[in-house]
Amino acid sequence: MAGLLYECAIRIYALLIRLAAFFVPKARLWVEGRRDWRVRLAEAMAPALAERRKVAWFHAASLGEFEQGRPVMEAFRKEFPGHFILLTFYSPSGYEIRRNYPGADHICYLPADTASNARDFVKIARPGIAFFIKYEFWYNYLNSLKKEEAAVVLFSAIFRENQVFFQWWGEFYRSLLFLFDAILVQNARSAALLGKIDGLKGVLVAGDTRFDRVAQLVESGRALEEIRAFAGDSPCLVVGSAWAQDMDVVIPALNRLEGRVRAIIAPHEINREEIAAWQAKLRGRSILYSDYKAGGFIMEEPAPGYIFIDNIGMLSALYRYGSMAFIGGAFGKGLHNTLEAATWGMPVFFGNRSYARFSEAVDLLELGVAQAIGTPEELGEAIENFLSRPAAMTKVSLQCRQYVASHTGATEKVMQVARELLTQSRNSSSAR
Fold first, then answer.
1. Are residues 353 and 272 in the same domain?
2. Is the pTM of this model over 0.70?
């Protein structure tokens, strides 16, 4: 009965998305990206299957999960170069930005999790191993993978007491956990919660692969000479993934500090009218990145103190040019990635509301290298404090770098599990 209700819910959700596609651009992308998916997937997989290449499937909900899983994909590619790597996304915000990622052989949307979609997808792709990143519990896909005897791994997972798995009425969702061959969690708290589920095996504390990803950014992050030229030697605040609620705090703080600090502002979503409104509220001059780039990175005097990044995909490379960072999202649905800033060694600020479920944010607060901000006055004072105390800035920089370095290594733990599962699969095939 629970499976039938789930099937109905998925079909109703897909129908609502199709209706919304007439009015909502993201919904339109969601629908159009899945059109004729069986034909397109079969065409993409045909050469690999003809060559008898084994298939590894990685699924990421969106861009953040992709970046989280990227170190594992790249490590897998390096160690198993003969495998065909299939990468799927659920959200347009992931697929549209990473559709040309060179580390995968084929990239597509994940069809809605109906029984027929899941059955056909798995039969066409024929993955020998599937990796799900962080929060992916698709009933029909997991069952189809299990029927086809594919190994299934969930990694960088995190669990909390208020989740459905741990409620008295959550039996259906608890049953999904038994369909994974391995569940690699970020911390001991998650492992302890899963340990209360009778009979569940394959749980391992492996850490968070995001730490490996941000460490890679420092080692091989791309240089942005135009941003380096903009920031110069001045103190610079990088505002990452900014929403309107964040800018209500950031703009008055910047106006208070006019002339003392530059700012690189990367909105979470690109809305030209909203950016123009923010520019109008700033006392100092500002410029769009696209205009700055079109002008050959030449700025008229007086030089703008603020630059708005009017594209998606640059944020992780921007932090290297900052002295401090304000991370958006915590005044709304949830804080965005603080590790991309912390790995470059800088004080981190964010809103004082929706951050508690992000363990790294809590860790950074406890270390004293992050501050939860409630008002423009608090942000202005926090920035002024670091501007007047360079020794404190140096100390925070060292602490941030040490924190990130001490949490790397999750990717290798995921790979160790993958090796074991692939070895078991080979042995099982030989026995048959």
1. yes
2. yes
